[in-house]
Design brief:
The protein has 13 helices and ten strands. The protein is an alpha/beta fold and 331 residues long. Helix 1 crosses helix 6 and helix 8 packs across helix 9.
Length: 331
Amino acid sequence: MARTGAPKIPQGDHRVVALCLPGIVAFDLTAPAQAFRLAHGPDYTPHYEFSTCSVDGAPVPTTTGFAIGVEAGLGALRRADTVVVPGYYAIHEPPPAAATAALRAAARRGARLMSVCTGAFALAAAGALDGRRATTHWAWARDLAAAFPAVEVVPEVLFVDEGEVLTSAGLSAGIDLSLHVVRRDHGAACADRVARMMVAAPHRDGGQAQFFRAPADDAPAPSDASFESTREWARRRLAEPLTVEAMARHANVSPRTFARRFREETGTTPLQWLLARRVLEARRLLEESDLPVEAVAEAAGFGNAASLRDHFRRATSTTPTAYRRTFQAAA
């Protein structure tokens, strides 16, 4: 309960409720809480209302050593548009039966379900992941697959978007998934505003690796050997015909070494990374400018509208024109 005199924080009309199970990982709760509470329109109208609940409305212990107070019991899930299940400790035990039933009921009525880290175990126990792809923290992916064989576990990715059910890996991947959902709901510009406020990477693809192996050279790469300066150089030149060879020259390594170490560092190939950046730039331009689609294609580095439409549809499942209509109308 808020203290007397505490300022009232504006709320949006899309209700996001986090189900806090005993042994909750505090970071897995606060990451989506912060992302959704920071999401707002250009006029600062909030997009989401974020609240918390537990099985009985009582505070729940965390893995960090303190308890978290919640705002409601399971009845809050009946009114949720999106349900978030943060990671929790007791993954080898069934969740409380009442929580499982509440998750099933939310799924039946069409609420969007999200999990962070081991929260996927609760969604799996409720049957929400049966026949779907899903992920969790890499350390527990085998356990999830063994306990729930009807789930197609993808252990190496940051997050998986299956439409109305989304799952993410551990800790910081919860930020990536939350930004992805904000981007899906309200566009790239809104998600970028949230990322800036959170001092987070504005866009990490869901298919990016959870963790990266050390370079395979006999001697380890020096700690300052990151290609981030080359990625920033490329971001500023998206309209140009960039190639792996050009990026390798900027990084002062051979194309073969660049491609190998780029993947070790980012979990994706240079061309896949470049394509994702160009799609993201096209999304921003479609939201924030009145440039014709052909001009957007050139500015984002696709060359022509046909190429933009092809790659854009693959990445977003919609057309540039439909995307602009949706998000400019929302703005």
